[in-house]
Amino acid sequence: LFRSFAAKNMKDGQAALAEAIKHNPKKIALHSRMAELALEQENYKQALLHLEHALNLDKKNAARVAAVALVHVKMKDFRNAFRMYEQAFAMDPTSKDFGLAAVATA
User: Fold this and answer.
1) Is the pLDDT of residue 4 over 60?
2) Closest CA to 95 of 71, 74, 67, 75
3) Residue 101: left (phi > 0), alpha (psi -120 to 50), or beta?
4) Tens digits of per-residue pLDDT, 24-75?
5) DSSP conformation letters of 11-47
6) Would you call 48 helix, strand, or coil by DSSP?
7) What are phi and psi of 43, to 5 degrees?
């Protein structure tokens, strides 16, 4: 019962976010949250789509670049993951935590 309730709430949340994105397509936080929800559902293509959109709006966010790298890892696209992690570390060489936390802050 709880699982079906949680799934319904997640779908409702995604629908609300999708509607908000329609009205505010340049709002980075909306794309980041949508990517986070997609990752929770293991929908990596959707997560990548929203993270890349957010990244196009703010190309200087190392945590977001690392989040894109993480999604590439999840998709077993290690070449692109490595490339994106290199880019993230070049942007912020002092960072010690480019992992799942990067998605939440992206």
Assistant:
1) no
2) 67
3) alpha
4) 999 999 999 999 999 999 999 999 999 999 999 999 999 999 999 999 999 9
5) HHHHHHHHHHHHH-TT-HHHHHHHHHHHHHTT-HHHH
6) helix
7) -95, 80
**Distance from C-alpha of 35 to C-alpha of 106, rounded to nearest angstrom:** 9
> What pLDDT score does 5 carry?
44
Residues 67, 58: Cα–Cα separation, whole Å: 13
Which tokens go with 66? 């690392």
Question: Quick one: tokens of 102?
Answer: 């990067």
Residue 100 has pLDDT above 50, yes or no: no
Token pair 């794309």 is found at 31
